[in-house]
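Sample entry (124 residues):
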Amino acid sequence: MPYALISKIIEDLRDIPHTLPFQLSPFKVNEPFLDTRLYSILTQINERLPNASLTLTTNATPITSITATGIVAHCCMDGAAKYPIGDVSRQHVLELYNAPAYRRLREHTARRQDAEPCNRCSFF
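Predicted structure, serialized as tokens:
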């Protein structure tokens, strides 16, 4: 993911109230320790998002899964973004996260048999 897009996402997340803690994992399915930008990305997050707890994981199941191109995928198993939610390079991260369709999707995730295409996934 280009550094400029990472910076935009971090700026969007600054709109989360400072009294609301949240968890952020800036690396999804790659190996964070191989990315030479790791230190600068983590420093930027620490400076700009004091209410974020950082987690370094690989192949995690985040609430919001952003591909390297900025497309918000349906979930971490939608690596090709066949079921896109939106594009953070053109939309605010919180606008996408709070969109009615994405809210309904998250509400149905607890019972994925009712959510399309989750009912066909073999991950769980």
